[in-house]
Structure formats: structure tokens, C-alpha cells
Amino acid sequence: MKLTFRWYGEKDPITLEKIKQIPKMSGIVSAVYSFSPGEVWSYESIAQLKESANNASLDFEVVESVPVPEEIKYGGENAPTLIENYCENIRRLGKAGVRCICYNFMPVFDWLRSELEHKNSDGSNSLAYNEDTVLSMDPLKSELSLPGWDESYTKNELKSLIEKYKEIGEEGLWKNIENFLKAVIPVAEQAGVNMAIHPDDPPWGIFGLPRIITCEKNIDRFLNIVPSKANGLTFCTGSLGASKDNDLVKMAGKYADRIHFLHLRNILITDDREFCEVAHPTDCGSIDMFGIVKALLEKGFDGYVRPDHGRMIWGERGKYGYGLYDRALGAAYIVGLFEGVEKMLYGGDKNDK
Ligand code: DNO
């Protein structure tokens, strides 16, 4: 596996030098943030990102994310042009040495939480989700907004966007993802890039909005739309694991050859549709991190891995979920977990043989 770490660019208080000091760190996961969804990223901006990483002896082979504009997702009239722009970004990134692109197909909201500073008993804080709180903030009825919302929309824009998705429903979203994949995957194959869709977080519909990358049945359907290796997954344990119906160990083994990017994090499910984010190790939460890694390695997984959201510990403040300390602890745990499972399965790192 290649251990990576998310970096938000030059403004990120966590510098590349600090990232490089995490044991076994191979590269960064980043994106060009100066373009709006749907725009083509300039060659210069991509090259600059790569150069910054390489100057710090880090690779830049994974992009998270090239965002999919809403109009592609709801199938607006500009969708074909926007899909062509998306293809151009894939070509440019492939040329620059990017091998994996993470993206999602979640309508309107990306990840959604009800709390950003949930107090844990050890004095740390982390992101948390409580469905009752979320539902009480229905944007069609309430004036409040939740963490994770794109604040660039006015309330009215948000409402009309939500209405569009309600009209097309789940099958409409499937149709639009099919159009997207059929255009984009051949380009990715050509460019030597693996596309890795991020599951919906949390993995169920909210406010009547359809969400489809949620469970085994739907992931089967998704992968079969274009049965190419380049049409793959970001296996995000914290997202898929929020639903007790998802058997993550089974899914990890089943999809191993289509998983190009692994987001490892743990959550503690406290009730139905209620959870908080916890430290990475298996015993800290509800997710069998060991079982997942073992299932993947048994099937020869050799993709990119990153520690996902961390708690805020040791007084750190910063971008929610993306501080340094707990993610670095997560990275160290991941290295240990892989070392243990690899030695158990084949006596060492597969790549050393
Ligand atoms: C949250 C992230 C997501 C992810 C996107 C991928 O912390 O896991 O925002 O980057 O969904 O497109």
C-alpha cells in the first residue's frame, strides 16, 4: 500500500515538511482549489501542486476531489459540456502523473454532520451525527444550516436545487451517473487513471434527496455500469460503516480489485443513525479495521491509503477532521496494522518479495 495524507494546499497550516515526517508517508492527496466545479484546471496549477509535493520528497498521485458539478448530477442542459470539461481534467491529471481520482456523486451536500465539536470523555472532540438534529434542520423548512453545507448557495438556490433532485429521484440519479461513467471511464483508461467514487456520507438519503453509493447492492450496480478496473471505489470505512447493514469486511474482500483508495477511520455507533468519530484503532469504535485490512490484503490490495478524519487532541484547533495529531496517530496505526497483517499473510511486505 502507499500511505498518503490529505493536504489542502499552501494555506494548509499542516506543512508538507510535517507530513513528510510521518513514518512511511509516500505522498499527498490534494486538489486545485482555485477553480469552481466544472472548470478545467490549468496545466500550471496542476504542475505547481506536483512540484510542491516533489520538493518535499512526496508524490502527488491522488486527487481528492475533482468535484462533479450539480448540473451533471441532476442532468441539466449543460451536462454534456461539463462532462467534457471533466474528461479534460482527467487527461491533464493523468499527464501530470496522477493515478487515482476520488470524487463523489452526492446531490447538494457532501458529508453531513450535526456537530463539529462533539465532546468525548477523554477531553478530545470530534465530528458527530444525530439524525434527529439533522432532520430538524430541513433546508426546505428551517433557516438553520448544518456543518458540511456549501454556504455559497442562498437559501432559495438550495431549495430549488433540492426540488430538482426530488423530481428526478433515485432512478434519475442512476441514469445521470451512467451517462457520466460512460463518458469518463474510457478517458480515464486512456489516461492511466483510476476513478474512485467516494461513498455517500452518511450512506442514506436525507431531506428526500436521493443517495445511491450506500450499500453492497448499489455498489454492485454501480460497478457493473462500466465493468472496467478504472471504474472503481474509494472505500471509506467511516462512511459505509455508519450503516450497520453494511458488512465492511465482506465488502472489502469482494471489491478489493476495484478499490483504488482506502479511507481508514473509525466511528462509534451510539444508536440507530447516530454516531461519533473516534480514534482509528478497532477497539475505539464500531468498525473492524483489522478485519477490513486483512480482507483486502488477502485479495492482494496494493492501492493508496490515507488516515481519514481525526479528533482534535492535545489542544489542537484547525480544520474539522483535518488536524495533524490524530491523523498522524492514525497513520502510525495504519502502518502497524498493515505490517502485522502482511507479515501474518505472507511473511512481509508483498512488494519486498
Ligand atoms: C470528507 C471527505 C469528503 C470527500 C469527498 C470526495 O472529509 O471524505 O469530503 O473528500 O466526498 O469527493
Structural overview:
By secondary structure, the chain is α/β, with parallel strands linked by helices. The chain has helices at residues 16-20, 43-55, 70-74, 79-95, 131-135, 155-191, 216-225, 237-240, 248-255, 289-298, 325-346, and strands spanning 2-6, 25-30, 59-64, 100-104, 115-119, 125-130, 194-198, 231-236, 259-264, 266-271, 274-278, 304-307. It has a single domain (2-352), classed as TIM Barrel (Alpha-Beta Barrel), CATH 3.20.20.150. Helix content is 39%, strand content 18%. Strand 1, helix 1 (16-20) and strand 2 form a beta-alpha-beta unit. The mean pLDDT is 94.
Summed up, what is this model?
The protein is of the alpha/beta class and 353 residues long. The protein contains eleven helices and twelve strands. The longest helix has 37 residues, at 155-191.
SSE topology:
Blueprint: E1 2-6, H1 16-20, E2 25-30, H2 43-55, E3 59-64, H3 70-74, H4 79-95, E4 100-104, E5 115-119, E6 125-130, H5 131-135, H6 155-191, E7 194-198, H7 216-225, E8 231-236, H8 237-240, H9 248-255, E9 259-264, E10 266-271, E11 274-278, H10 289-298, E12 304-307, H11 325-346
Parallel strand pairs: 1-2, 1-12, 2-3, 3-4, 4-7, 7-8, 8-9, 9-12
Antiparallel strand pairs: 5-6, 6-11, 10-11
Helix pairs in contact: 4-6, 9-10, 10-11
Bound molecules: D-mannose.
The site of D-mannose has 10 residues, from strand 4.
